Amino acid sequence: MAVAYSGGVDSTFLLKIARDVLPGRVIAVTARSAIHPARAFKEASDFARRIGVAQVTIRSNELALRGFSDNRPDRCYLCKHALFSKIKAAACRQGIQHVAEGSNIDDLRDYRPGMRAVEEMGILSPLKNAGLGKAAIRTLSRQMGLPTWDKPADSCLASRFPYGEKISREKLARVERAEEYLARLGFTQVRVRCHGDTARIEVEPVRRRDFFNLKLMDRIHEKFREIGFTYCALDLKGYRSGSMNEVLPAPIVGAERRRR
Q1: Phi/psi at 192 (nearest 5 deg)?
Q2: What pLDDT, in 10s, does the model give residues 217-242?
Q3: Closest CA to 242 of 183, 202, 211, 198
Q4: What are phi and psi of 154, to 5 degrees?
Q5: Domains of the chain
Q6: pLDDT at residue 256 greater than cutoff 60
C-alpha cells in the first residue's frame, strides 16, 4: 500500500497502522509544493524515517493547474485530482496497486470537494470506512505513543484565501511566514487568513484573551507589516476549521454533502 502522507494527525496514524499490518509492504508518498509548509514536510520525513517506512517525495505545482490560482470553490477538487494522479503513478512505479489517504468521518460534515476526487480515483479511505473521527484518532494515537496525537489541525496554505482571491506563490509565502511567527510566540492552533493586504488572525478561542496586551499587538502588527501585510486584525470568534466556507451559498454546500 502507498499512503498519501502529509505528517498530520490522520495520515500519521494511518501510516503507522499500515506499517504494522503490512510490514515491509508500505511506502509513504509526500508532496512538496508552495501550498505545503516546509516545516510540515520535515516533520513527516522525520517520522517516516523513525518507524522505518520508505518515503517517496513528489513535486507538485498546484498554481500551474488551470483554475487553481483563481481560487474557485472547487479548488480542492482540482488539487486532489492532480495530487492523487501523481501519487498513483509513484505507487505504480513501485509495483504498488493500492493507495490510501487519511480522511475521517468528521470530514463529511464540512465542504470538502477534494473527497470527490478521492472517490473518483479509487483511493482508499480506511479511517473513514472504519467510522473513526478525529477525537478517536487522537485518543488511539496517544495510546500508541505517536507524537502527533495532540498536533494542531492543519491544512494547505491555499485554504487561507477567500474564494475568488487570486493565489500566488508570494502570497502563500507571506501567509507561511506569518503563521510561523505566531507559532514562535506560542500560539499552537493558528490561521492567518489573507484578505488582500489584510491579515485576519484566528487563534484557539481560549487564546483570544492573549491579545489584550498592547505590547503583543504592537509586535505582531510590526512583524506582519515587515512580512507584507498592511493591516492586521483578530477574528473575534477564534479558530474554526473551514471558516472560508462560511460564505459559500447553501446550495453549493448542500449539493456536495448530498453527493456523498
Answers
A1: -115, 100
A2: 999 999 999 999 999 999 999 999 88
A3: 202
A4: -135, 160
A5: 2-143 (3.40.50.620), 157-240 (3.30.300)
A6: no
